Amino acid sequence: MRIAREVDEALRSAAARRARASFCILTSVLSGALAAASHARSPQERANPLTTWTVTVVLPPKLMAGHPATLAVLGVDGKLAPGVRVDLSDGESLTTDRTGRAVFTVPAAGDYLLVKGSGASAAALIDPAVAESEPKAITLPPVVSTQDRFWICGAGLRGEADANTVKINGKTALVMAASPTCLVALAAPETKPGPALLSIEAPGVQWSATTTLVSLEFEPPSPVLKPGAKGQLAVRVRGSNLKLGIAVQNRTPGVLRFARGDVQELVTNGGAQNLATIRVQALTSGDFSFGASLLPARDAGSAARYLRAAAALAPQELQREIGEMARDVERRPRDVEKQRAELRRISQGTIAGDFRTLLDAALAAL
Predict the structure, then answer these.
(1) What is the pTM of this model?
(2) 270 φψ region: left (φ > 0), alpha (ψ -120 to 50), beta (else)
(3) Domains by residue range for the chain, with CATH
């Protein structure tokens, strides 16, 4: 009981803190003042049932055929959502437990798994089952956001999330999703940006790895925005002076317009003042908000697998194009910008469904 209480407390107190900021455009009646507030949402706090109608399904990037795995579901409020039903592509249905997670057995056959529920879908690749062995190496991104979930992959992990322990600079991270080959974890709220030592433990194995933790912080638009005015939004990186790729999303396009689209991929300038800026225009008075995350490291091999799976579901007129795209990604993994642009175009013109989910998974891997 004591261990269960400690786990429950950790789930409630740790936060999935995707970088967010909210600001307000005020009319001249209020002297054009800018009200700014940054906030972080805590998915480990239980979601209000009224906010879980649109969810995010979190899966490990790779699963092992025939073995246990854990998925997580986040509600629209960004919190882990208990009591949400999701359907697996093998016909099984699951309901998340009080922690917002669910354990299941991966199908013994197939190259990928789809999970759908409450208006969302996600995909993960399935690798063949292999004998357990101590990992020769653990891999994880070279740079990790303190505000967002990240993956750790290597042999010897456990599909039951709570059977794995991840610590970052001595502070216990939350393991949100898991398989015998990959975990999805989230740093504890108090974890500071900068160099980080990770320790990972599972029954029978223990190892360490290093990464760099960064935080993404919004700065108020400059100059102060009034309806019709133009300015700049800045996203600053704390914890690293490297040039980093980030994605910034405009969550309120009816109030504020990004000059180059509501989702922009940017590269920060590096150095002591490590930031990226976006040109914006206020459309009307009211609250507006943004989200930011690190762009994931490219995984051309996974992207090609998703594309081959998508080709099998594609309309006849797209099957050849997507198949060729998969071959190009494998042959020239460092030169995929053309494929990314074309894939984004196809995805944006495709209605929601299994084909779209696989396209989006391939795009995320590129």
Answers:
(1) 0.83
(2) left
(3) 49-127 (2.60.40.10), 143-214 (2.60.40.10), 216-294 (2.60.40), 300-365 (no CATH)
